[in-house]
Amino acid sequence: MKKHLLAILLSTSALISTGAVAADLSFPHLETTGRGEVVVKPDMAAFSVDVVATKPTASEAKQAADQAVAKFIERLTKAGVERKNINSANISLSAQYRYPKDQAPEFTGFKATRNVVVTVYKLENLNTYLDGALGDGINQINNITLKVKDQKKYQDEARQAAIANAKEVAASLAKGFGDKVEGVWQIDYNTNDRPMPYGMRSAPMMYAADANSAVNQSYSDNNIVISDSVNVIFKLAK
């Protein structure tokens, strides 16, 4: 899979440490924030569809929504999508009313809404899955999110690039002030704050059945970016 490791001159910050942690350090030091990014071609995707059915009774609305979803799932599985990659558990039912001016609300029926999330591991087939969805009774296709299978591998690459960036900036700063970096004193890395892949040329897309819709785009031509960052406090040579 083609990838490109960015040179990380972007968005890098470095400063003489301040704040509560830095104030407690009695030796010469500096703090840098290293940032790294890896650009990769997507090889999988996830998209969600909504089916909405309004009928006189709750059972009729649910049945209509269930039938549309069942038809959609059947077509997907025949096209090669494994059932475990189709999540169709979400459903909601709500009473619907019309509100005439200066009159009491009028009950009009029940609305059933079902959401289906599909994970696609053959990106070249994504357009095929989308093309027939509206014909299966799906009201809307949305949130087409491009992904990469081996995210951990690229996340690790982005992390190593962030570490190298932090070290490079620290060495450059120290040299500029006529000093040298002696070693690492503290590493601050928040694993719960790692950015997820995002489309560089297209964020999650809405689908519409017209000639200029997302379905006519080549999804494999898009890139996704996986990024990481690390804060490091370096000791300076005395």
TrEMBL record:
Keywords assigned: Signal
Matching InterPro entries, A to Z? 26kDa_periplasmic_antigen, SIMPL/DUF541
Is Signal there in the keyword field?
yes
Its GO biological process annotations read: DNA damage response
Is Methyltransferase given among the entry's keywords? Answer: no
Q: Pfam families from the xrefs?
A: SIMPL
Where is the signal peptide, in residue numbers?
Answer: 1-22
Query: From which domain of life does this come?
Result: Bacteria
- Protein name in UniProt: Oxidative stress defense protein
Q: What is the lineage of its organism?
A: Bacteria, Pseudomonadati, Pseudomonadota, Gammaproteobacteria, Vibrionales
